[in-house]
Structures are given as C-alpha cells and as structure tokens.
Design goal:
Shape: globular
Oligomer: single chain
Strand content: 5-15%
Radius of gyration: 23 Å
Structural class: alpha+beta
Number of strands: 6
Order of helices and strands: EHHHEEHEEEHHHHHHHHHH
Strand order of the largest sheet: 1-4-5-6
Length: about 290
C-alpha cells in the first residue's frame, strides 16, 4: 500500500489592478516583538524565561531563548515562531520536522516536495527550481541498522512518522542547505542524544568490574577510528553517524564515547564548511546573473 503527500510551493500570482474604493480600511500595524539590538534581545530573553506560557524547555533558560531567537532570525522565523519550532538539544539548535518543511516551501527556490510510504520505506522527493528532482529514503532496515527500530517512545508508537521525518530531513538538508543554513532536525538529534549519555557514578568495585569486562583495544580499532574520521571529514555528520551505528556494539565500547563525540564534531564542522561554501557559490551565481 502506498501513501503519498504532495506539497507544492505557492506559485506567484499576477497582480490585479482595481479601482480603490472611496473609503478604505487600513489594518492596524501588527505588534512586533523582534529585538533590534543585543541588549533588547537579552532583556527579551530574560522576560520570556520568566514566563509560564513558553515551551517548558525554555522556562528559566534565557541563554537558550537567545540562541533560538538568533537562529530564528538567521532562517526567517519571528521570535515566537522560533521558540515554538527550534529546540536546543545538547547545546545544538535544531528544527522540528514540520518547521523544516514550512521554511523550504516558503522559499522561492522550492518547486515541490512529495512524500511517499511504500513497503516499509519512507520516500521524500524534492525539486529545486532549475535543478533535477532528487529523492531520499529511510526504510525499516535503516531504522534497525541505526538501532531505532522498537526503541521506546515515538519509534514504537509512530514508526512511519519517524521514518518520514528522517527521509524528509535527508532530502531537504541535501537540496536546500542555503535555506536551512545547516540546521539539523530535532527528531534526529533526540535519537542521537539518547545514545550520548554519561554513566552514573560507580563504586570502586563496580569500576574495577567494568574495567575488567571491557574488551582490549587493538590495531583494528585504531583503523576503525581512522576510517570514521575520514568519513566524518569527507562526508559529514550524517555519514559518520551511520558508519558508527554499523560497528559492533563491542567495538563501539572499545572506541568509546569521547572518541565518538570528537569525530562527530569533525563531521559537524565538515557540514558547516560545506554549507558556507554552498551559500558562497549560490551568492556568486546570483551576482553573476
């Protein structure tokens, strides 16, 4: 059975000239809370952090609010929209999946977005104006490989929806990096952050037992680490994450969380460099006409 959702970016409509009526109603100017300076932004953040009707993750956290508002301004979201649609996960701002789609559809470079689900695989087909259509997918097998299948929470309750979010994120981030400014999808970072946990404090006996049970690092693990570094540097964070999840659990344990996070940061830096280079290229093309 195939499910398909097609969303097209709004097409430009021709202007219609009409004779103005003798009496016109002038709408009141909308109240805009957008800060105009850093001082205003800091005071604005403090004000909202003390409010009880903002998302709970922002209550009492003016720093997170400031980051969300600034990122919102970078990608075209008003402050309140930014707070509703930007999540700060492990200190990294990210967009919820529906906001990701809304920003792309609002951009004039987007022609359409088509989402399908067929035989256990979610597909997202997108077209950028002047470029060929591209497609990304995320299957049940992909979820299993990434350790997400049957994971407690949304992956158990709404597996199709979560697959849809992954396929959407891959497609939109690959084809519209200039629109999204390299912002990751929140649903994805939540899955990854769930794996990045700090172990609880252990007693000396427990620590000794854990140390004894830990496999020995070998040259093969050094080679794995070098391979992960190359993937992160050449292909970015997403490719590194997939390569990491393909390793055996014992190998991941030997390599360790600190190494994983270090290499993950290499991938994030690679993504940021690519996004900046792509934006610069597009700007040059626009300037050259």
């Amino acid at each position: 059975m195939t499910e398909q959702t097609t969303t097209e970016a709004p097409a430009a409509t021709p202007a219609v000239l009409e004779q103005a009526p003798s009496k016109t109603l002038v709408p009141a100017q909308a109240f805009d809370m957008s800060p105009k300076s850093l001082d205003e932004a800091m005071r604005f953040s403090e004000l909202l952090a003390n409010s009880t009707i903002v998302p709970k993750d922002f209550i009492g956290k003016p720093g997170n609010i400031l980051v969300a508002v600034q990122w919102g301004m970078e990608i075209g979201l008003k402050p309140m929209q930014a707070m509703q649609n930007i999540a700060v996960i492990n200190g990294r701002p990210s967009l919820w999946g529906d906001a990701l789609l809304a920003l792309v559809l609002a951009s004039p470079v987007c022609e359409y977005v088509v989402e399908d689900y067929n035989d256990g695989t979610a597909y997202c087909r997108v077209k950028r104006r002047g470029s060929p259509e591209q497609s990304r997918s995320f299957s049940v097998q992909d979820a299993e490989t990434a350790g997400l299948k049957n994971k407690p929470g949304p992956w158990t309750q709404y597996p199709k929806r979560m697959q849809q979010m992954r396929a959407r994120a891959f497609a939109l981030r690959d084809v519209f990096p200039d629109v999204l400014k390299g912002m990751p999808i929140a649903e994805e970072l939540q899955d990854y952050s769930g794996e990045i946990t700090h172990t609880s404090r252990q007693s000396p006996a427990q620590a000794a037992q854990s140390s004894a049970a830990k496999p020995t690092r070998t040259k093969a693990h050094d080679d794995m680490t070098k391979g992960l570094e190359k993937v992160a540097k050449d292909e970015g964070f997403e490719a590194f994450k997939k390569a990491w999840m393909l390793l055996e659990a014992g190998d991941r344990t030997v390599i360790g969380v600190a190494e994983r996070d270090r290499i993950g940061n290499i991938g994030i830096k690679s993504d940021e460099d690519y996004t900046a280079a792509e934006a610069e290229r597009l700007a040059r093309e626009a300037a050259n006409g």
